[in-house]
Specification:
Length: about 575
């Protein structure tokens, strides 16, 4: 561990705190449907879309209609992506003549990108054409991110409004977020990446001669455009198999730092937007404080473990840190920080191979996902997932002080608590249930590269990543089989939409209620006590569920390594 390494973590955290309000201001304008400086250019595009689609953006929807339209859109776009991948061989922009993708692989990939997971069982540069990368995948990087923010907006309206059934219009929210937020930032971001050395071309390959005089064919393509939105939208799917460890996706220390900032930017901004929406920005700052506290703790542990090397080498007096699976141009601190950032958010992009982390270093990204991707989290999904825990925390506080729990002016009653528990419970049910199935069936046991607790960690990580809609992997798992493609697809779909639907139901229930003014007996939800209660609730309810499985996986792996046994 070095002073520079700790400084990197602290400076990154401070910048996220500083950027939260500017990002939140822009998001709040879209939440309210107000005019932005970009409306003069993009307004005609927005209005043209509504005319073609027959949509009245002023016609608001109740939670059931909002949810139905959202789900119909996801089903249609899933089938659209599936069809493109299957027909890849006969579609344009396929200069290498790549064949169509198999049925199970196409469905897994379509679900992965629709759910903002971007799980990739394949190496993108050898399986997908430029057309598939641009149309089938990059399209979803915009739409899945916009869907998450739209659902967050609907929940914010549930808290902010009173005695109404209306939560906004899904199509208007989706369109405005895409046009006025994701698209313009991604264009500027992509230009920065191109200037930094990231390719953006319709060409297929270039030939290079190595220092040994050997000819090497290198795949290129429209990388920068996909890279920009995959980070900003917390999607994470890489153009290349090595993802952000590849020099064509992430060439310099500067691009690495900017990529980390962009992963957290919108998720942090949405905390401020929530506070503004409910009329008390301190509510948003309290949520951000809890998120960043959990994040700094996780990043610090990951850096400490990677800098300490493996227990076996440390016991032999060989230190210097664990550089296996890491890019030397980034080093230990930036690699450990990136792993915490990408799994605290639901991004899943990696600049180092998590399977090569120390056992406890690899536990941190796994645990971040198992908490429900609410430590900043995905764009939209992070804040609405966090608010589920906030409802449970205020319910617990209400029990302790003996009064009806209230949060930002709304009474939290049995219906909201039941729906919150239902949404939170889907993660352990899927992660642990599907991991158990894969750990006993021959088709599942054929996947891990390693045996023993590390092999179990590879399985547990995969289903944690899929259900939490993250997409990163312990790369030792061979998951491109019908068994894993099917089971991981189930986890991704349930982990996305079986949380969104209860969230929208909660939003509808809250919007119908009156505002309840705070009194002297109200539990405060903006100070350090509230932040501590939030963190405790998340760790106890969201974290302890997974303690036995973590003990069988990374903890047992660490203990075995310390005793001289490797897997």
């Amino acid at each position: 561990m070095t002073f520079v390494g700790w400084t990197l973590i602290l400076v990154f955290t401070a910048l996220i705190a500083l950027l939260a309000k500017p990002a939140g201001l822009w998001l709040f304008a879209l939440y309210e449907g107000r005019r932005t400086p970009l409306h003069g250019v993009l307004g005609p595009v927005e209005r043209g879309f509504y005319r073609v689609a027959g949509i009245d953006p002023a016609r608001e929807q109740g939670w059931r209609t909002y949810a139905l339209h959202m789900l119909m859109f996801q089903v249609v776009t899933t089938l659209f992506t599936y069809a493109i991948l299957r027909a890849q061989a006969v579609l344009p922009l396929n200069p290498r003549g790549l064949a169509g993708v198999g049925a199970d692989g196409s469905m897994n990939t379509a679900i992965a990108f629709v759910t903002n997971t971007n799980w990739q069982w394949y190496a993108g540069e050898s399986v997908l054409s430029n057309f598939s990368q641009m149309v089938a995948l990059t399209l979803h990087n915009f739409l899945s991110a916009a869907t998450g923010i739209a659902v967050a907006f609907a929940l914010f309206r549930g808290f902010a409004r009173a005695q109404t059934k209306l939560l906004g219009n899904f199509w208007a929210d989706l369109t405005r977020v895409t046009l006025y937020l994701l698209l313009p930032i991604s264009i500027v971001y992509a230009v920065f990446l191109v200037a930094s050395g990231v390719p953006q071309t319709f060409a297929s390959t270039i030939d290079a001669t190595t220092l040994e005089g050997v000819k090497q064919t290198i795949v290129v393509g429209p990388v920068a455009s996909q890279e920009a939105i995959k980070m900003l939208g917390t999607n994470g799917g890489g153009f290349f198999n090595a993802n952000s460890a590849h020099p064509f996706e992430n060439p310099t220390a500067l691009t690495n730092f900017v990529q980390m900032l962009s992963i957290f930017l919108l998720g942090a901004g949405l905390t401020w937007t929530f506070g503004k929406a409910v009329g008390n920005p301190r509510q948003g700052w309290a949520i951000l404080a809890a998120m960043l506290t959990l994040f700094v703790a996780g990043a610090s542990i990951a850096y400490w473990q990677e800098a300490a090397s493996t227990p076996l080498l440390h016991g032999l007096g060989l230190s210097g840190g664990n550089l296996e699976g890491k890019e030397v141009r980034f080093g230990l601190a930036a690699s450990a920080l990136f792993s915490a950032v990408t799994t605290a958010a639901s991004c899943g992009a990696v600049n180092a191979m998590h399977d090569s982390f120390t056992a406890l270093g690899g536990l941190i990204p796994m645990f971040n996902m198992q908490l429900g991707e609410i430590v900043i989290g995905g764009v939209g999904s992070g804040i609405y997932g966090f608010l589920l825990f906030a409802l449970l925390a205020v319910f617990i506080a209400g029990l302790m002080v003996g009064r009806t729990p209230e949060y930002v002016g709304k009474k939290i009653e049995a219906r909201e608590v039941k729906l919150a528990v239902l949404a939170i419970a889907i993660l352990p049910l899927c992660i642990l249930g599907l991991s158990a199935i894969a750990s006993v069936l021959p088709a599942g046991l054929a996947g891990p590269l390693n045996k023993g607790p590390h092999g179990f960690s590879e399985i547990l990580y995969a289903f944690s990543s899929a259900t939490a809609n993250n997409g990163s992997a312990f790369a030792g798992l061979s998951a491109g089989t019908p068994f894993y493609n099917g089971l991981l697809g189930v986890g991704m779909w349930l982990g996305r939409f079986f949380i969104i639907i209860p969230v929208l139901a909660i939003a509808g229930s809250l919007a119908a209620k009156k505002h309840t003014p705070a009194t002297a007996g109200s539990f405060p939800t903006t100070g350090p006590l509230w932040v501590g209660l939030l963190i405790g609730t998340i760790l106890i309810i969201g974290g302890l569920t997974f303690l036995p499985s973590l003990a069988l996986g990374p903890v047992a792996d660490h203990v075995a390594s310390a005793s001289g046994k490797l897997f």
